[in-house]
Design brief:
single chain; alpha/beta; eight-stranded mixed beta sheet; 8 strands
Length: 337
């Protein structure tokens, strides 16, 4: 990080995964951006996003209006979660993924085109799991000299990698990189990854206030009914394993960021009421009921946030232009830590 920027606050936007429930996140972002009157990305020094949140992070970093990203979920949700052949309708999620990736790929291609990470003018971090290595992999803009490869990757490829949710979508192969699974397996709520990137990679010092704005997806706590059987095999677990993973991660990261950052951590999220839970309980539920719940609650969450004095620091902050070391937006700079 440049010396001139060391005393300036460093703001991180962290967007959680949640399938179609990303419409809630997109609605919040759209409302906030409308109030701010400029691209939301200009207010953050780093944008992190996982799965559905990764798609939104990439879109924001490309300065696609948040209202268009909201429309992507609301208008194209059935294309994303509806590309199913007869085989997938009959045996989907038991033997093959419930949905084909064709719908998601076509929607992302229409919105993002051939844009690469190197074309972005704002720092991003998007988690995925490289199933070829068995490790988490984080796609990043070239904001460090060592980040020499990710900038060549298209946003479509990165989006398909971070959103390849087990049992919902097929794994995604990126030639020369490996086969990828959903970033939610390593970190569905990426705020801690962003904090680590700021303090340990970009060398933001202790004298620099670091703040995290996290936006959830009305993620439901994955729980078990009292009458449910406890002896469970593959068929009884199904996609519920993935739901449990992301639910447990969300609560853990929320607790830890609250402990570490205190008032410098602000989270936007809502709990669905029992009635609303019936509409949004599934990650791929694209119904009129789910759309209404997610948009209504997202709009109210944004209204609440804009009236909260704690949000004013995010509203007034404008990020400094980042230094990139590779790609079309390469700039001069020296890193010292």
């Amino acid at each position: 990080m440049d010396e001139a920027d060391r005393s300036k606050p460093f703001h991180i936007l962290a967007l959680s995964g949640g399938g179609y429930r990303g419409l809630y996140t997109a609605t919040v972002l759209s409302s906030l951006e409308k109030s701010l009157g400029r691209p939301l990305a200009k207010h953050f020094d780093l944008i992190c996003g996982t799965s559905a949140g990764g798609l939104l992070a990439l879109g924001l970093a490309a300065e696609i209006p948040a209202s268009e990203l909201e429309a992507m979920f609301a208008n194209d949700g059935k294309r994303i979660f509806g590309a199913r052949s007869l085989v997938r309708r009959v045996i989907g999620k038991w033997i093959v993924a419930k949905h084909s990736a064709d719908g998601l790929r076509s929607v992302l291609t229409e919105r993002l085109g051939s844009t690469t990470i190197g074309d972005l003018k704002h720092r991003v971090l998007v988690p995925a799991v490289n199933y070829s290595t068995g490790k988490g992999q984080f796609f990043k803009t070239p904001h460090m000299p060592a980040f020499e490869t990710d900038y060549r990757r298209t946003l479509v490829d990165v989006g398909l990698a971070t959103a390849a949710a087990p049992t919902y979508f097929p794994l995604h192969r990126i030639d020369g990189e490996g086969v990828f699974a959903d970033g939610g397996l390593v970190g569905n709520s990426p705020g801690f990854f962003g904090l680590h990137e700021a303090t340990k990679v970009l060398c933001v010092g202790e004298q620099t206030p670091v703040r995290v704005l996290s936006v959830g997806t009305m993620t439901l706590g994955a729980t078990l009914r009292g009458s449910a059987g406890l002896d469970r095999g593959i068929f009884r677990w199904g996609s519920k394993v993935f739901d449990l993973v992301i639910s447990a991660q969300e609560s853990a990261v929320d607790s830890m960021l609250t402990h570490v950052l205190g008032d410098c951590y602000y989270r936007i999220d809502d709990l669905a009421t029992p009635d609303q839970s019936r509409d949004v309980s599934s990650l791929d539920a694209v119904t009129a009921g789910a759309t209404n719940v997610l948009r209504d609650r997202g709009a109210q969450a944004a209204r609440r946030t804009l009236g909260d004095a704690r949000f004013s620091v995010f509203k007034s902050h404008l990020a400094a232009a980042p230094t990139f070391y590779h790609g079309p937006n390469k700039s001069a700079g020296v890193v010292s830590c």
